[in-house]
Structures are given as structure tokens and as C-alpha cells.
Amino acid sequence: MSAFSAIGEDRETDREEFTPGIEPQATWCPGCGDFGVLKALKQAMPEVGRTPDETLLVTGIGCSGKLNSYFDCYGYHSIHGRSLPIARAAKLANPGLEVIAAGGDGDGYGIGGNHFMHTARENHDITYIVFNNEIFGLTKGQTSPTSPKGHKSKTQPHGSAKDPVRPLTLSLASGSSYVARTAAVNPRQAKEILQEAIEHDGFAHVDFLTQCPTWNKDAKEYVPYTDIQDDDEFDFDTGDRMEAAEMMYEAESRLWEGEVLTGRFYHDADRPSYGAEKRSVGEMPEDPLAERYFDDDAQWERTADELIDRHT
Amino acid sequence: MTNDTLMWRIAGGSGDGIDSTSQNFAKALMRAGLDVFTHRHYPSRIRGGHTYVEVRASDEPVRSRGDGFNFLLALGDSFARNPQEGAYYGNEELKPLTENLDDLNEGGVIVYDTGQIEDDELAEVDLEARAEENDWHVYPMNLREIAREHGSDVMRNTAGVGATAALLDMDPGHFEDLMRDTMSGDILDANIEILEAAYDRVEEFDESHDLRVPTGTHDGEQALMTGSNAIAYGALDAGCRFISGYPMTPWTDVFTIMSQNLPEFGGISEQVEDEIAAAALALGASHAGVKAMSGSSGGGFALMSEPLGLAEMTETPIVLVEAMRAGPSTGMPTKPEQGDLDFVLYTSQGDSNRVVFAPANVEEAYEQTRAAFELAYDYQLPAIVIYDQKLGGEMRNVSTDLFDREPAPDLGATLTEEEIAEAAHHESGKFERFRHDPENGVSPRSIPGQKGGRFLATGNEHNKVGHISEDPDNRVAQMSRRARKLTSIREELDAKDSSHQTYQGPEDADYGILTWGSQQDTVFEAVDRLNEKGVSVKALGVSDMMPYPEAEVTEFLESVEECVVVEMNATGQFRGLTQRELGRFGPKMSSLLKFDGEPFEPHEIVEGVESSIDGGQPAPHNVKYVPAAGD
Description:
The structure holds two protein chains of two kinds. Chain A contains eleven helices and eight strands. By secondary structure, chain A is α/β, with parallel strands linked by helices. Chain A has an eight-stranded mixed sheet with strand order 2-1-3-4-6-5-8-7, with helices on both faces. In chain A, β7, α8 and β8 form a beta-alpha-beta unit. In chain B, β5 and β6 form a beta hairpin. The radius of gyration of chain B is 27 Å and the shape is globular. In chain B, α19 packs across α22. In chain B, the strands form five sheets. A seven-stranded mixed sheet of chain B has the order 11-10-12-13-15-14-21, with helices on both faces. Chain B is of the alpha/beta class. At the A-B interface, β1, β2, α3, α5 and α10 of A face β9, α9, β11, α11 and α13 of B.
């Protein structure tokens, strides 16, 4: 029997299982978009069929990092920008785990930008949710990588001179095999997108627009928005990189003008995940590495037997 | 010291095969029953530029590179380049000869390749006069020509080894055996012909030197390896099956050895985007239930300070190795220094809660890497193995018995699902992973995927189930519990039969030398020489940097009148650590420091200690003497 009997457990789950009992009370501000992510994730997990004990949620720092306190599974609340490398290794160590990483726009596109690019490039089989509210919230309202050009804050009192990051375009160019954008103001789409992203076998990046009613008064711009999958105007092939790239570029440009396009932008179901690639070249064991440590029958080769001959 | 010990230096251009030739040479000597030690000197460039390797061999244990050397094999530099002009300007055939003469001992032997050296160039060197003055025995040989006759120019290393063997009365059969291990076909045939031709050619000389290779025997089977090899093998035997890293000299050696072997051992190696990621991956793998390591050198380790602190707070076990090179900043990439001790002890915010070991030699590198894994996983904290470029790169023979022990894949303080089911849970269903009460500070953990073991690991202060908490009582309880781990570890280490600390010299000696890391064995050699000269001195080589072996060092310092602390940095970091940890002995300790990019030679310690005892004579060239506080 596996040492990790929670993995692959065949049973019904409901969203209450992902609710951590009576404490702690969420400390997000009233009206915060982060509630929308939490709700969508709680609804998506039972649909995916995963249980809390077989799920590992790795978060960064900031309001988004608090997700781990309000969502009940195995959690690793790490440091600013570093959720992805931790999540990647956990997945390699035990591919049976459902590994989800989450962070904010500063966390994911700023300080963790390098990890984002390389995790996407390698196509690790993890889901990455970026709470994008275009502001640094927990540090009280500084300009973030996605803040609009001209945005005024205490750190850019004259208005930002920078064009914001284009998360979708960046994600596609970096190599993500699934890219979507959704918004807290549409719980149904958010749940569907998250479910699809979690089920996707590869790096699934969800740019999750969340309003910040306290520090980013422009949050109201997220309403109304358009679902590109529901709207005939946006007929394009989500499996075609060029068409997806064009659509992403348009969506990002329109966001800057105040119009919000959400939905699935890119989906490559054929590209093998990093773990599969690594296994195919013989760089990764067939069975989950973590299992070996609990397997009394596992053969642990001695260095002396294998390697010392080369030195004699 | 001249005729019972061979100190052979092969010099040439970086990229000309100096390294591999010296490795084979050392191995042949080891197979002939001798103890060997190699020292590498190389520039921070890929090809071209002066490089040399020294191989010291004796029928007695060799502890260091020794003082100077007594046999020079000078090959030309084929890739000489002027870095300022960026232009290739041809061979520098003479340089390996001229650059090395200063350290050649009296009575030494020189073989140099006359291949492309012009007579007028040679005339400028004044070799004859210098040779006469120093009683050097010079054997000019056209090694290139010999190599070309049977193969090609690049094989002149083999010709040089053949000439060496003949001049030292060595059996060339050892070299032939080694060639058969690594070569085949025409290349092998050509090299064997070259070896024999050069060997025979030496007969033309009227030999005047009396340097010969001593004969020796080993009790058991020997293996020749570097400190980097030993660290990697220690990790593998400790059950490490995950490594993540980013290349940086000299840590790259460990990373490369692990990457080449892990897939064969069913493990995973990841070369990642930067060192922050590297350490973070190790945390992720460890959290998911795998023994994991990462590492770097100075600048790369600086980037790891964030994940290092996270490991302490989340109590995620990891092993990091830090390979020191001369700093600050990028410093001197290929030169050793022991300048990162303070940094490694206190990197990251908050109170340090980590294990730091500084092995002294190849044996200790293996053993203490194993010990680092054991403690990291038993006590759920980061353990760091700090060593320097010298130890990482030097080759020594060690008994194969060292490696003859069972692998240790034990994950330490983890629970099975049955144990989790019986453990305390919060009413919300979360497992109480961070309980306050364990006496040794360790609250056993669950691994993601185990049923019923859910908890939150967080870099914030947290309560028993891992929820963020700023409650003052909880804070004090958690901090105190984590701090108890180091106390428990110290107690565990002190209770062991064998200590990581090593002693040399008579127990009742008047004077003491305190040292750490790669300088230990050089100090020990100096201690023997000092005692032979009638200076009553003993030494203690300390390996446990944190938790500090307070009792052992106190006892040692109390037993001596004065103590010289020998280390390879400019500010006496280990002396500072000792004073800080023990809170006294300031007036008893002086420092002998070297930070010119070269490790101590034994005579420098001998002279330094003598001058310290005499009352502060000037220390040898490039060695800094710092008197005791209050002196």
C-alpha cells in the first residue's frame, strides 16, 4: 500500500472539505476580489475530484498569500515571488500530488518574474493562479507591474512612466501550455477556468483579475467584462499560438483602455509536461520519488558499490 | 624532506590536459602504494594562461601540498592569449618553465619541453646560472617531437610522464594500465609508444640527481578523490536523491558529480534559473518527502539567504553546501579563502537556527556531509557544509573502507499515516505539526499526500497547526522550541564516541594552534615539525561551527599558555566566532592569517608560530600576524 493513501483516493468531495473550520477568519478587506478566487477554487476542487490531503497549495507573500490560510489542504506559504520553484520541486518529488501555486501580480510578474518565465518554459504540471489587482495591496497601495501607465501612488506620485506587464503575452511567449484570464466578478467562469487549468497536464497559468476596493479605486473597471468564448466577435483557435498571441495582445491592450476580455486564450493539450519529458530522457524515475522513502523494500544503492571503483 | 617525498609539479597552459595527466600520475603513485595529495592552481579562464598541478607523494601520510616542490615538468602553453588585447598571440613555450622556478626547492629536477623554444629566448632566462646556484638538475627534452613521431603534439603530456617515470625509476607499467582504463585503439597504442619512447630517451642523459620515488604499501584498498567527490558521495549515501543548483565555481564540481549520478540512483537533478530558485526547489522537494540538497559559492549563496531563513521558520530540512572562494563579491573565482564563515553562520533575517559543519579533508567531507543530512532531517532545519576551493579540488587517497557503510534514506522525524491518525489534531481537522512541547524541539511532520496530515508551513510565525499567529505567548513558545533543537544537537554530538574535532600534538603541550576547515591538515603537519624542533605545541581542528563545541574548545584553550588561530581570511573570522561563543580567551588568542589566494604552506605556520611565541616577529611573506587582544 502506498505511504500516501490520500493520493488518488476515489471518493466524492465537497467544497466544505476545503474550508478550514472555525478559524481563522479571513482578513481580506470587504469587497476584495480575493474572496472570488477562494470561492472559485473551493468550487473547482470537488469537480476535479481532488481531496484536501492530496493537494498542495504553495503561495507567495501578500494578500494573495493568505489564500493558504482560508483554503484547507497541505499548504506552503513561502516568500515573495518564490512559490513556483517550491511548487515545481514538490511536483517532481511526488507527481501524484495536485500542486497549485498562487501569488499576486507583484509577486508573480515582478519579484518572481524570472521563476514565472522558467516554470512556463519547462511546462511543469502545476496550476498557477495570479491574483491580479494591479496594485500592491498588503504594503498599502504601491504601483505594481500591472498598474496602468500614469498610475499615481505614494511611490510614483507623478504617475507611473512604465507600460504595464502583459501577463498573457509573456506567459505564452515563455511557454505556458495553458493560459487563461478570468475575474472575481464572474464566479461561474472563474470556477470553470480553474477546473480546466487544474485538470490540464502541463503548466496552466490563470491571470485572475481581482478588484482591490481599498487601494485601487479603478477596480470598478472590471465590470462589465466580456467572455471571449461566449462572444461570437472573438472567434479564434485557442490551440493556435499565433491566433492566441494576437488575441492576447488585443485583450491586454483593451484592458488598458478599460475593457475586460476574459476566457481561455491558449490551450495546448498535446505538449508533454516537464515530468513526462524528464522521464523520457531518463532524468526522472518512473515511480514517485517520495514513495521510495516510505517503502521498506526499496533498494538503496551504496555509493561504494557503484562509484568508488572509478577512483581506485 | 627531499628524497622521501616526491613533490612533482606539472605546468602548462590551461586546457592542455594538465589536470587529467596529473590525475593519472597521482593514481599511478597511489597504486604503487604511496600516499598522495594534489594541489591545483588555475586561472579563471577556459583555455590558455598559466596553470599547474602539484602531486605530492610519500610512503608516509601526506597532509598538505608541502613546501615548494622538487620536480618540475614544464610543458608549453598552447593557448596563450592576452586578455587585454583579446588577441591570440601564439604559444608561450617558455612560461611554464620560468613561472615556476621561484618555488623549486634546492636540488630539484627540471624536465622541460624544448619543442618550440628558441635558443635566444632561453638565453634570456639565465637557466644555467640559476641551476648551478640552486643545485637543480636540468633535463631538456624535445617532448613534442617524441609525441609527434608516434602520435600528435597534444600527447606530449604522455611523453613528459614517461620521462618523469624514467628519471624517478618508476615502473611505467602503472601508467600503461591507467591508459588502458581510459583509452582504446590507435590513441591507446600511440600513447603507449610515446610513454615508452620518452622513457627510453632518458637513457641519453647522464643522470646527476638523487631524487627517487619512495616505495610504499597500503594496508587496504585506496581510492583517489577530491573533496567535491566526497561531499557528493556522502550525500548519495545519506539518501539524498534531489539536487537543484546553478553553476558557480567551485561549487559546480559537487553539482556536476551529483547530476551525473543521480539518475542512475533513481534521483532527480535540476539546473535552474538562479540560486534563489535552487534553494527553493530543495525546500519543495524536501517538503514533499525527499532528501534534498542545493548549494553554491559566495555570491550564489547570498541569493539563497531568503529560502534559508524560510527553511528555519517552516522547519523544512535541507542541506546546503557552500564552497568558498576568495571574496568579497565575485572575488577570485578559482582561488581559495575561508572568508564566508560569518556570512554562512548568520545569513538571513532573525536568529540563526542551523547546523554548520566545516570538514577538514576528504574523509571528513564524506562523513560530515552524511552527518549534515542526518541532523537536518532528524531536527528539521537547514544544515550547511562549508568548505573551500582548496578542499573541493584537492585529490587525496582514502581507504575504500570509508565508504563501506549502509545508505541512510531515513527521513527523520516524520510520521506514518497510522501515527498521524493517533496524533493530536485541531478541531478544524488540521494536524498539530508544530507542537510546543517536544523536549528536543522537534515536532514530527507529515508529508503532503498522507491522509489526515494537513498543515500549513509558513515563513510567518505560526501556531501549532501552522496558522499565522502574532500571539506573544505562542511566539515565545515556538522560538524557544526551535532554539532547543541546537541545544539538543550539541548534546547529541557531545555524547557521540567520536567528535568531529581533531587533535594533533602532545596533550601537555605549552602552546596551542586552533584552526578550521581545509587548513587543518597543513597545521597538523606544522605541529609535527615544530615538536621535532623542540617547540611544545598542539593543535585542535574544529569542524562544528554551529552549534559550537564549547566544552571541547574551552578545555583546549584552558590547557595552553597561548594559542595561535590559523585561518585563510583577513579578519580572523573563526577567532571572532570562538571569542563570541566562549566569551573569554581574548587575551590568549592571536591570529595567523593568509588571504593572497594560496593556502598556507606548512613552513609558513612553523615560522608564524615561532615568531608569535618569540613575541611577534614579522610573519612570513603574505602572512598577516594579528596579536592577541590587549597585547
